[in-house]
Amino acid sequence: MDSSLANRIEITQGDITKQKVDAIVNAANSSLLGGGGVDGAIHRAGGSAILDECRAIRARQGGCKTGEAVITTGGRLPATHVIHTVGPVWNGGQKGESALLAACYRNSLRLATGHQLASVAFPGISTGIYGYPKQEAAAIAVREVRQWLAAHDFPRTVVFVAFDEENRRLYEQALTLPALFIWPRVGLARPAPCVG
Ligand code: ADP
Fold first, then answer.
1. Is the pTM of this model over 0.70?
2. Which residue intervals of 7-73 are DSSP H helices?
3. Which of 140, 173, 184, 191 is the one with CA 20 to 30 A from 93?
4. In terms of pLDDT, which residue wins out, 185 or 97?
């Protein structure tokens, strides 16, 4: 990775609701009305102002489709904004999941760029209740963030927040891979050769 890009990507382990960044990204569901996992944690920590804005967005556009993203206040969070994106439910890998997951990262980053946010923190979208294989999800996350940062001045910094040790290692591993590397589909024992 070119070194200026490497300086703009960080990995941290812990609770995303504690991150002091301009925006944290929420792994929301299409209702935007809150749920379990990181979504529940964000709404609990950020308070009702986030849900109020989510409801207003629902009234305007009827929720948020898979792969898309919307932005609200961060309420009482240290982060000023929350970008809510709806990841795909893992369904074996042949239902467009990887393209939808990539779209989540790009559409979240597009909002950050549009709002000139300097720093954004991502959890592992879809890797909890939605069941996306974590290694492949980390590789997609890293690929999309690298490509976006290479082409845009904002956000300046992206933080991958790993909830546990295993996820931290997966991000570290993904960051050492060549830019075009993508882990093979689940079921193959070894990494596929680099394409392109
Ligand atoms: P999804 O429904 O998109 O799978 P989840 O909230 O179930 O979303 O999980 C997404 C990821 O967020 C998982 O890897 C989970 O371990 C992680 N996670 C859950 N709570 C937090 C938190 N407070 N901070 C950071 N990551 C979290």
1. yes
2. 37-46, 48-61
3. 173
4. 97
Lowest mean pLDDT among 20-29, 77-86, 169-178, 182-191: 182-191
Amino acid at 167: N
Atom of ligand 1 nearest to the CA of 16: 24
Q: How far is the CA of 27 from the centre of ligand 1 (A)?
A: 7
Encoding tokens for residue 108? Answer: 């979240």
Taking CA atoms, 152 is separated from 10, 69, 117, in Å, by: 17, 18, 12
CA distance 109 to 162: 18
Contact yes or no for 100/87 (Cβ under 8 A): yes
**Which superfamily does CATH assign the domain made up of 3-181 to?**
Leucine Aminopeptidase, subunit E, domain 1 (3.40.220.10)
